[in-house]
Amino acid sequence: MFILTFPFIFLSTIIKNSSTENILKTLPPSIQDEVNLTTPEIIAKYNYSSESHNVVTEDGYILTLHRILPKKPYKGSVLVMHGILASSADWIITGPQHGLGYLLSDEGYDVWLGNARGNRYSKNHTTLNPESKKFWDFSWHEIGLYDVPAMIDHILEVTKQEKIFHIAHSQGTTTFYVMCSLRPEYNSKIRAHFSLAPVAFVSHMFSPIFHAIAAADVIVENVAAFINLNEIMPEGGLVSTLGQEVCGLNTLTTILCSNTLFAICGFDCKQLNTTLLPLILAHVPAGCSTKQLLHYGQEINSGIKLYEMMIVRKNTLLGHFRQYDYGFWTNLKRYHSLKPPDYDLSQITTPLYFFYSKNDWISSAWDVGIFAKKLRSLKGKFLISYDSFNHMDYLFGIDARKYVYNKIISLMTRH
């Protein structure tokens, strides 16, 4: 986690005498106020009709759904899920001409932007205090098992439909696979699912940041428990605050911020609108549990290591897509096995469409290929034609509409 925050600590020394007002002046005047606006407030600013809905999960977490009502004759509802450390804001902060939330609304879709437990919009519980360790005792497994089904059921109840569409990025795809594997009855509630940067098997993930977390998996878990570090990078925390105040200051800080993101997701200078960096980092990160990152670290450790990639056949499946590993004794108690069970991918029957890229350091093209061979309901697998497209370009890339969104909207008409 220190690896993620260090660049921003360094950047803060550069601008210690700079004010927030000066930083905001680096943003286009039309969006300066959006740094401090919530998702519904940004949506309303552009004259789209929006609503906020609270949903309570089976285990008591109170989630918030942000809804954008359709601007054209109604074509159906769609749940759009964010990735790790993110929120509903991901889909709208690039503006009406670029944000997927707006584009779907323009096409006549009833858009529901999800917020998983633990992010800035879903940090409540019916009985647990968000300051308590027990509140944060979840990974993306619980998000898939409880959060996504609760959101789907709420949308179906409100709209009186039998099925909806589902679109997700990164961890949002992981949680969808978890849901369909463990609660297969939800397959029939989805018209079609679209995975942007699918993440299930991660043996070939290249991101040095995630490999560093994986390498120190047990140490990080023990240290986090010792210092009671249950939440990672909350909205309004160090990274969020420094990011929005630093990244648009000057050429040097913009380059440093850009390279920090690229070191996690893959380098792609041409697709990043650097003038929007302070705005993006005002809304990302939005918080998650330590356990979410640790679970991905375990998945990496279940396969090959970064230094082994050059000597191991890349098309060989080495690794697992499985539940959280609590250690031998706790695994025996929870799973009646020394090792956690793999998710049963044969249970996934929803029509699936994958979008993936060669330069994604988190969702490796090799891993997507391995995963695709295990699915019987995959209807399409689309490699982005722009070779440098990275993990975050699905959200903030200048040409995300051209390479991804237009294709999704076209495919939705088939269902």
UniProtKB/TrEMBL annotation:
Residues 1-20 form the signal peptide. Transmembrane segments: none annotated. Gene3D superfamilies: alpha/beta hydrolase. InterPro entries: AB_hydrolase_fold, AB_hydrolase_lipase, Lipase_euk. Residues 39-94 form the Partial AB-hydrolase lipase domain. It comes from the Eukaryota. PANTHER family: LYSOSOMAL ACID LIPASE-RELATED. This is Lipase. It comes from Tribolium castaneum.
